[in-house]
Each structure stands twice: as C-alpha cells, then as structure tokens.
RNA sequence: GCGCCUGUAGCUCAGCUGGAUAGAGCAACGGACUUCUAAUCCGUGGGUCGCAGGUUCGAAUCCUGCCAGGCGCGCCA
C-alpha cells in the first residue's frame, strides 16, 4: 500500500530529473524498532545515478512525500536516518485501512490474480512402481504438492503429473519376483531371482494375484522351477548363463541378464502377466498412499504407452529428419551439444533398444503436444547430471530455451542414532513414507518434510522424529488456529467483526505487528511461488503464529469495549483465514480445537 | 579431474536475490495460569556467518581461489 504510494512519487521525481530509469521501490522491515515500521534504502542506491549525496536525496524525497495527501493520512512520520535510509512510521489509519482491505478480501487474502500465465505442467515423484515409497519420495511428494498448491494459489495454471516408469528391465525383474512369490505360495520351489526384489511386500502382491487368478499360471512356473532345479547350465539353448547379479547395484545393468529363466511362450506370457498386474497393484497402492498423504495427480502417464504406441519411434525419426539426430557406430544420437550439453547422447542403442532418454524425449514431446507451454520437473539430486541433456532435448522439441525447468531436490539421509545408513530398496533397508506417517502422523510429516529448503539435504532419524513429534513446529501453528476457533466459540453473539474508528483501535504494538505480518502474506505467496520455495510458507506460518500468540497474551477480545472487541474479532478472523491458508498450502489440517 | 548442492549459536535450520547492532526452534537456566486453550508467553546465557582475497557508501548474501561434506559425470534407469 505504502510501496505503491512511494513508487508513484519516485516515478514522477525521476521523470522531472530526467533519470533514465525510476528505481523500483522496496520497503523492508527494519530490525530495529526505533527505525519505524518500514524503511527503504532507495536514496543510497539512487546516489550514483543522481550524482548527489544520499542524505540530500533522502531529504528531498521526504519533502515530496510529505506533500502527498495520501501519505499524510497513512504515515505518521518520515525520517531520514543513517547513511540515507528513509524510515516510515505508520499512522493508526494505515492499520485500519489495511485491515479493511483484508476483511474485504475474505478467504481470498493473498490469492494471486491470474496473470498472462503459460499453462504449466508439473511432474514429480515419478518412480518405478516396484517398491514402496520411501521418505525420499515422501519429501518430493510433499514438496511438489505444496509447490502445486502454492503456484495455483499464486495465480498460475498448473497440471499435476506422475510419470510411471513401468517399462524396461527393472519391471521385468519385478514381474519375475512376483511370479516366484506366487509359485511359492503353491509350495513350488521357485526362488526369487538374485537380481529381483526380495521385499515382503512382493508376497502381498503375489497373494492378491493368486486370489484373482487361482492356479492359472502355475504350470508355466513349474517349468521355470524345474529348469532352476536343474541348474543354470541346463537353460535351453540360446539362453546364456546369467552373470552373477551385482547385489549392491540398485539400477541393474544393461549387460546383465534379467535372470536365467527358460525361454518358453507360456513362461513369457506368465511373466508379462505378473509384470503388468503387479505393476497395477503397486500403483494402486501408491495412489492410495499418496492420497492419504494429501497428494493427488491429474494425470498418471505410463512410459509403456510411448513404446507400444509408436510415439518413441516417431519422435526419433522426426529428429533424424530435422538433422538434430544422427547415426554413428550403429547407434542413433541426439546432438545435444548444439544446446549446451557436454556430449551428444544416445537415443537408440546399437542393439536397437531405445534408451531411457529417448523415452523421456517422447514423453516431453507428448506434454508439448497436449498444449503445455512450461514444463517443470522435480528430480532428486542423484539425477542432476541428466539436466543438461534434457534441457537441450526440450529446447530442440519446443524451439525455445527455458521451456523445461528442472528443480533439483536434495536427498534425505537416513540416520540411526546419529549413524548414517544407506537406503536400499533391494535389501529392504529404508524408512518408508508409511512408517514415517505411522510414527508422527500426516500433518507433522508433511510439515517436517517441507519446512526445510529443498536445496538442503535432510537428515532423518526416525526414532528422533518420533520423539520430537510433539515439538514439531506444526503444532505451534495449528494451536494458534485452534485458539482463534476457541475465541469464536466463546464470544457473545452480539459482537460482530468490524473495523471501528477510535484511538484505542489497533493501538497496541501487538495488534500492529500482527497486521503488518498479515499484510505481507500476499507478497510472501508471490515470492515463494516464483522462487519455487514452499518452505517459506512454513516459515511465514510460524512467524504469523508467533505474532498471534503474543497478541493473544496481551490483548483480550472478549470482555473489552465494543469497538475494541469488534475490531479485534475482525483481526482474529483475518488471522484465522491466513493461518488456515498457509496450512492448506502445505497440505496440513487446521484443527478447530486441540 | 570436471559439474551441481551445502557449510550461519551446543543441535536442527531461517535469513525476504546487497542494508542499520545476524534471527527462530530445540537444548540449558530463571519467571508468568482466579480472566478467550500454558501445545502459550516473558527474560538470561550462547556467533572468527568454513578460510582468504575482491567488488562498494554497505557483504552471511555477489565474484575469484582454497578447505570440508553430499550427489553426479554410461549405448544404466
């Protein structure tokens, strides 16, 4: 409010003086109370272009501002201080007017107006559906969902997307693992392949499948069991003996065999079935778990559809036709070096199989075809080496740089009594999202996972998190909300919220601090949305809650004069609405009582 | 070796893209409930902002070089 006023005066001033550009006015909140409510270092920055001393400039601007009627009404005092700061002390009227504006906004306080926004696609979580979600996924889930909520509230059009990596070798291994557990449930001695998934959850999947299909696939799997019993060397001709699987290697290796199961139409059919059905069941579980966590998606996109639908071949051919891709050494490469990558990247391997990169290109082409103008991907830090090539690829596809925005989230370290542990899906050594939620609840988990900057590696000690759950900052914020709800329950019905006139209205520093905080909410939303930093909403919520708790301690709402009661009730309602909004943006509930 | 992220109080982290004497929570200590919820509030102690230069009126913030930690650098996904 004051910012615009000052900006207007500065613009006019700059024009009169013939300065090339009117500087953008930024008001900041001084650390020192004696420095007033707002301050601006503008004149110090202006000193160079104006070629005059900052203090002289400040004095001139002070005089110009004081001549403005609006300024005279809203600002009690303007002072020149220090090396050339301009300090503003607001009048009581300014607080009342600010409150009136926020009351008028109602539940929409802070909501961004829909600007000329591109249609944004936000993709996150995106995993192989072959294991439970761990806390690392949980962190990205919480971050991405909060970012979605924040951007949407800030005025952007955002569509949420989950990319299902349901194609390739990992899923073959998963399918065989499910098949093996299924066979075992019939007492058939078929071990889970060494390069497969050993976790207990695979048994659950197998049991569900058995319930659906009975013993339909048992004969085929008996063949496999028989071959396995005969030893690896007994595999049918053409089937190379499997290289020993790298037990520690999560990703597996293209050169390693999936397993040494015999090649037989019935076996292939069974494996294909278990892969597909197992994948679907895992996905159902994930969707359910994410929904329980408050995270939903508009689109679940299957990688397999790109391979079977011909989209992948089409995009590769297109790139070849356009000269962006070329053939060399039996493989097809994309010339990503033309767009800033260090080396060109393979699309189709010498053996004819497409790379993951090629599928990703087809996927992003699909997003562009669906009309999205800006693509945001949230990846873990372990994939950041992949960013330049993907940026290059999307630039080639879209014809303009900057279409793809990759946000790199740092990882979650799992600690146990201060000791760092390595998470491993295969060994089952990990904390799942479900375990975290069971330990501390959805609200605390979401707040905990999103309150730190995504650029920061997060240390998680489950035992400690559980122990400290009652100290989680989320309760501090929720408590403020519950306290306001309690006031609303107790206040006499004849007290109506209203901004009354009078010298006692919004006169205390506690009310004023709260109002100033509330006023900065809209800016906080814009800033944290633009900078993709939802953790700032968490920080803001804590500060707002602190301002409220102090207000609550010093200012009573019930049992004071009618003018004060009405005004403070209005302040409580606005505060409640903003706390509610903050919590909602983070996917956390706002209880009416605690 | 190269690239990205990080280094701020005993611990966990903020620090609003350069502002005035660097903040919060936890932990430690001392206070405050006959009044709208004490899951709260008030106070005390606690710092070479990794180190060294540079840019300027002014640097935790920007640049360079070191040091330390994490993550990457495939015809893997």
Secondary structure layout plus pairing:
Layout: H1 2-17, E1 38-40, H2 42-50, H3 54-66, H4 69-74, E2 75-81, E3 85-90, H5 92-105, E4 119-123, H6 135-153, E5 157-164, H7 169-184, H8 201-213, H9 218-229, H10 265-292, E6 299-302, H11 303-308, H12 311-321, E7 325-328, E8 331-334, E9 345-348, H13 356-369, E10 374-380, H14 387-398, E11 404-409, E12 412-416, E13 419-421, H15 433-440, H16 442-450, E14 458-461, H17 462-467, H18 473-490, H19 509-519, H20 521-530, H21 535-554, H22 562-586
Parallel strand pairs: 4-5, 4-10, 5-6, 10-11, 12-14
Antiparallel strand pairs: 1-3, 2-3, 7-8, 8-9, 12-13
Helix pairs in contact: 2-3, 5-19, 6-16, 6-20, 7-8, 7-10, 12-13, 13-14, 15-16, 18-21, 18-22, 19-21, 19-22, 20-21, 21-22
The protein binds one RNA strand of 77 nucleotides through helix 2, strand 9, helix 18, helix 20 and helix 21.
């Amino acid at each position: 409010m004051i910012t615009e006023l000052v900006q207007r005066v500065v613009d006019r001033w700059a024009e009169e003086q013939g300065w090339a550009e009117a500087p953008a006015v930024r008001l900041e909140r001084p650390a020192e109370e004696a420095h007033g409510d707002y301050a601006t270092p503008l004149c110090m920055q202006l000193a160079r272009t104006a070629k005059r001393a900052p203090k002289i400039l400040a004095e001139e601007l002070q005089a110009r501002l004081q001549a403005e009627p609006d300024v005279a009404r809203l600002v009690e005092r303007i002072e020149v201080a220090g090396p050339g700061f301009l300090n503003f002390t607001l009048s009581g009227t300014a607080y009342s007017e600010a409150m009136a504006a926020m009351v008028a906004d109602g539940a929409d306080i802070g909501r961004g107006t829909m600007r000329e926004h591109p249609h944004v696609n936000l993709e996150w979580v995106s995993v192989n559906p072959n294991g439970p979600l761990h806390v690392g996924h949980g962190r990205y889930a919480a971050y991405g969902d909060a970012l979605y909520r924040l951007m949407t509230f800030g005025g952007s059009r955002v569509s949420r997307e989950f990319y299902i990596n349901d194609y390739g070798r990992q899923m073959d291994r998963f399918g065989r693992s499910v098949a093996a557990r299924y066979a075992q449930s019939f007492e058939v001695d078929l071990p889970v392949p060494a390069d497969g998934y050993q976790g207990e959850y695979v048994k659950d999947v197998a049991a569900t499948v058995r319930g659906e299909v009975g013993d339909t696939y048992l004969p085929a799997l008996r063949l496999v069991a028989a071959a396995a019993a005969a030893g690896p060397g007994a595999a049918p001709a053409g089937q190379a003996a499997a290289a020993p699987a790298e037990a520690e290697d999560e990703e597996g290796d293209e050169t390693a065999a999936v397993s040494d199961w015999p090649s037989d139409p019935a076996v292939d059919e069974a494996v294909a079935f278990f892969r597909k059905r197992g994948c679907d069941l895992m996905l159902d579980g994930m969707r359910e778990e994410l929904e329980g966590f408050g995270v939903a998606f508009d689109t679940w996109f299957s990688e397999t559809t790109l391979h079977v639908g011909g989209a992948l071949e089409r995009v590769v051919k297109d790139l070849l036709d356009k000269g962006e891709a070329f053939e060399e050494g039996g493989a097809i490469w994309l010339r990503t070096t033309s767009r800033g990558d260090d080396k060109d990247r393979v699309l189709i391997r010498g053996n004819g199989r497409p790379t993951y990169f090629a599928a990703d290109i087809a996927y992003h082409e699909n997003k562009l075809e669906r009309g999205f103008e800006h693509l945001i991907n949230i990846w873990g830090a372990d994939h950041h080496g992949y960013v330049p090539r993907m940026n290059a690829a999307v630039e080639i596809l879209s014809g303009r740089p900057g279409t793809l925005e990759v946000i790199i989230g740092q990882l979650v370290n799992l600690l146990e009594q201060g000791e760092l542990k390595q998470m491993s899906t295969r060994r089952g050594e990990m904390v799942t999202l479900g375990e975290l939620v069971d330990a501390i609840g959805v609200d605390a988990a979401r707040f905990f996972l999103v309150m730190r900057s995504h650029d920061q590696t997060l240390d998680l000690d489950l035992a400690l998190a559980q122990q400290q759950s009652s100290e989680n900052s989320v309760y501090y914020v929720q408590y403020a909300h519950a306290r306001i709800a309690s006031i609303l329950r107790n206040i006499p019905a004849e007290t109506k919220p209203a901004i009354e006139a009078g010298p006692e209205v919004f006169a205390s520093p506690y009310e004023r601090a709260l109002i100033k905080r509330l006023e900065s909410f809209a800016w906080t939303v814009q800033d944290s949305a633009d900078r993709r930093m939802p953790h700032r909403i968490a920080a803001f919520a804590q500060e707002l809650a602190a301002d409220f708790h102090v207000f609550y301690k010093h200012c009573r709402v019930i049992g004071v004069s009618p003018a004060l009661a009405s005004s403070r009730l209005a302040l409580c309602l606005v505060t409640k609405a903003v706390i509610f909004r903050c919590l909602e943006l983070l996917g956390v509930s706002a209880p009416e009582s605690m």
